[in-house]
Amino acid sequence: MAAVAAGDAVEAAPETRRVYRALAARRIAILTVLLICLVISVAADMALGPARYSLSQVISAVLSPAAVDVQLRVVIWDIRMPVALMAVTVGACLSLAGAEMQTILANPLASPFTLGISAAAGFGAALGLVAGVAVFPAAVEYMIPINAFLMAIAASLFIYGVSTLRGVTVETIVLLGIALVFTFNALLSLLEYLASEQALAAVVFWTMGSLTKATWTKVAVTGAILVIVVPLFARKSWALTALRLGDDKAASFGVNVRALRLETMLLVSLLAAIPVAFVGTIGFIGLVGPHIARMVVGEDQRFFLPGSMICGALLLSVTSVVSKMLIPGAILPIGVITALVGVPFFFSLIFTNRRRAW
Amino acid sequence: MVALTLDGIGARYGRATVFSDITTGPIEGGALTAVIGPNAAGKSTLFKRIAGLLKGEGVVHVDGADAAARPICYMPQDTGANAVLTVYESVLLAAKQGASWRVAEDELREIDEILASLSISDLAFRDLGALSGGQRQLVAIAQALVRKPKILLMDEPTSALDLYRQIEVLDYMRRLAKKSGIAVLIALHDLNHAMRYCDHAMVVASGRLIANGPTLDVITPAMLGEVYKVDARIETCTLGRPLVIVDGAR
């Protein structure tokens, strides 16, 4: 530097910006490959099931439903496609929620599951299933998802509120999250203890997580949440990325850190709560999806945001496929399989790509 | 030329007043101003207040710059962020806040030039987490410069640097200020650096502005005794430069 006069016109190496353009292009290519993998996984998910159909039969049922027989059409359109698409939307929602939580809390352990938001949502749903208690009594017919959502919001705001207190560290937030997990799980156990046999079965379904009760309405609702939330995050992508450089640095770039955290936490609650309300507790995706995305495309949110969604969707979709293949003719609860499939994959990534881990 | 004037500014955290009623004459562009004072004197808070990141009483005037263009840039102390971002991305990020996703060729050219002027082009595609403290400081300067500030507030930019890098950075900032006409305020602990590189000095202690003026008028044995509680002399070295020599604590 001593040889360079400050403020002088410096002959910048043109290859620097060319290398940046190439880096950006490589990230877009990685996202495209992941997207293709997702499409293949969704196709496999639709092709697999107790009734055996060939891939060509499945493709014709998807492309021209009127031309295939009724049974095939019903199996593909009313049973398998909602399940396959639900895996995509739920995986994307949970992973995106985890990604933005990790971003705003500057904590690699943050996810809807580890911070107790899923547990809160599960407790809210169980409150409706077991005791018939509606947290928001005006909408009793949507009691379960609304209970889950409101409890998740309450837990999120509690965590956010504590995180804004002076002297609260990242470690405090994680401990608080773990405390919330234990609290809501204890309350859930209490409800299970008091529940009728039928209600108990419903609650157990929750805690395992399952895509088998997917419907087009649920797919549409979770998809709609993504359609609403993603553009809001996308608009803030530079600000969210700046947050990873520290609060002071982000503020010095002109980011309103407090407002950004609150807004993001509210959107994250929405992303975390609704999928849990529909498919139960699926723990692994929100934690690991973002980490995989971070390793392959870095933390520039223009790539990290779609990367997290695609990775989460791909993880859950592959898990859905595996859950059908493990025991022929039976579909295992997906929440049980996610960690079994994802953990070995995640560790292999960590050990082959240590430099870009958190 | 840009000029910064502080008119009775103050700041508080909750009920605790950090400083109050700080008033200065115009701090002109083209020069370096050292902001000195003991630990916890409120230097960082003063910078945040000037940059508008903290609210408080008083007014910060900036003459000769478009106020809407955010002429003041605060460069916080290095916190060793572990983001999975390359140096290039982190500088781009500083330039693009509030802007669209698309990155124009001109914007990249500007980053190339800033990295080259700081001689850190070879670090462009290193991850931030893989940099040394000194390298991170240079990247922070690049992040500040890409925002084209008229007034740059640098919070202890030399704290993580070895001696060679400290001198390099201060020398670079002095030449940059003179060349581009920006006003640079630097929080410093090393009073000899302040005397050698800074044209002016402000002393902040006990929540008020103790002294403000040409560096050699401000850094005096009396001030060092009052603010730092040390017995000290100002001597001239064989090269004719003034030096602070501390004889001991009071």
Automatic annotation (TrEMBL), chain B:
SMART domains: AAA. The keyword Thylakoid does not apply. GO terms for molecular function: ATP binding; ATP hydrolysis activity. Residues 4-231 form the ABC transporter domain. The keyword tRNA processing does not apply. Keywords: ATP-binding, Ion transport, Nucleotide-binding, Transport, Zinc, Zinc transport. Belongs to the ABC transporter superfamily. This is Ferrichrome ABC transporter. It comes from Pleomorphomonas diazotrophica.
